[in-house]
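Notebook, p. 212. Picked up where the previous page left off. The plan for this session was modest: take the two constructs that came back from the sequencing core last week, fold each one, and keep the raw output in the notebook itself so nobody has to go hunting through shared drives later. Recording the first one now, exactly as returned: residue sequence, then the structure token string.
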Amino acid sequence: MCLALYIAAENDLPLFASAPSQKPVTTSAVRSRRPDRFHTELLREEQQIVRSHFSVPTVLFAGSYEGCSCGFNYGRGDDPEYDDDEEQLLAARESVAELVRYVRENSVKELYACYFDDEALPRESERWVAVDDLSSPTFQFIKRQLLRIVAPPNLSLHRSR
């Protein structure tokens, strides 16, 4: 089963697909999938139910280099013996970097991960995270968990006069 990552914001979110990588992943299992590192898509009819997990109105699907969202967790899992392909690790890091940039630049407020076709199942947990937490090598998207983005502190309030 593949992971699906949904992202949500109060504002409109751009549909985005990155250009194919200059150095494509050559693993045969990945070759048949979409070559871009990060993309967003409008929800399909069967995915609309996922909106019930969010408190903000705009919801999109976010995909990694694999097409699905599994690539966002590649190399950050509990099974390092299965996550040791250097080309896929590079592609996964690039996917995560693009996701983090997108979240930051577009004021994404919430993210929700589940397996495809589990969008209607109840949420199992939720937690607050900073945008930078998403790029930690130990961070993992957990199925049926809602992530709420903590706003960064306003540094202008802490400047001395």
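Okay, moving on. Second construct, recorded in the same format:
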Amino acid sequence: MIRREYLQQGRAFLSGVAALGCCAGGAEQVVRYLRENGAFGLRLSGALCLLVAALVFGWTAWSAWRSGPEAQPPWKTLRWWRWLVAGVLAIFVVLGFSFVDQDQARFLCRGACVLWIALLLSGPAWSSSLHGTLDRAIGGRCFRGLDFAVGNVIVIVLILEVGLRGLAVVRGEDTLMLNKAMGYRLQPGPNPHGVFGNSLGFPDQEFVQAKKTGTRRIAALGDSFSVGVCVPYEDNYLTLLEALLPQTEVYNFGVSSTGPREYRVLLAQEGWKYQPDMVLVPLFLGNDILEPIAVPELLRFNPDALYVELLARRGYRLLREYGRRPGAGKLYGPLSDEGYLELASRHLSICRKVDSPTEQQRWAFALEQLRGLFADCRAHRVPVRVLLLPDEVQISKDLQARALKVRGWQAGDIDASLPNRRLLQFCANEQVPCLDLLPVFEQAGPAAYEPNDSHWNKLGNRLAAEAVAEWLLKPGAD
């Protein structure tokens, strides 16, 4: 009896401390929300969850202090832990699907998890009659079946999560290609659409470290535009660029689905080995700035923290797109009209005149990575040049109008050339030459892009190569 009294007092004390902690955390988030002067958002939603959790913890502490010794607490049973883990996993999955790639979703995720824990530790959860009540409400057999199913789902999810992370450690790379610069490298040899990969997985011939006398070597970074996913190797704009520049080697270090963070990693891991005389950094405005590859950090309690959730989301998107074009009979290729419009509407966000808090953070992150990349080039005493690659939604008025309708925005909410001007100013401040290809592609129009794809076709690659070659051949370009 004395031991139970001590447990009861300890429970009251810990619940009180938890209530104070939730109050402090919720109040801090409310203050930060007020400083941001934003609309009702994810930070405030998380703060409200914490404040409600504080009330639940406070009520639990008061009840425990006034009541007598309780029966064996539920946290000593396996069933309680099953439902605890199930609730947390459900929060991660639901928020991961509802707030895709939104950094501030972590505030709501944390608040919701704390609230779930508070509810499970509250008085009703400690009541010995809880399970009997549930049995009577939904039927004993149904409740036991549900409880059994929840336990099996948890086991499967945990095994899959541990397996994916363990495989990443064993292979030395990220199985889901989330935060490693090598995840999306090509297979050596022929790849789809006539793309060719060398032994390192880059879309080029074999690299050699020794340079020919009198030959300039350019290390070109980039994403799928550098890979040239829609054209054969010989029509890639970087392959054409090498042919247009006299006594110049262009080493193509392009890797699909990468961005400024990965460019810097690739340059450090691979690029400097080949002693380049110049580094070329193409930035695709559609996603290089506002869509960084997710990094699953469990300690941040971001919905993107679980590999399983990311795998499920990617599989869902792939199957949904496949269902939209069943006649195609394949998973890969040009997007459906609906799928491409959704993609274009996401890419349109970079042209919005007023950034959301998440977009502000992503701009800051991308620019920080670029500054680091520029600093690395200066440390190696190698000049660096930046290319701005426009998205089709920036030049096609029809696609732009349809994307605005999807987002529910007005034409006055966006400025198609705004991101280009921002990056031109940034590069000027960093004293890094920058070429904006938007005027070139505004002249060509959508004819330079593959239908429903966002990548350049042969015409687009040729126009880009000619514009870059003319720029680099100007006096002082070295």
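Notes on construct two before I forget. The longest strand covers residues 278-284.
Flagging for discussion at group meeting.
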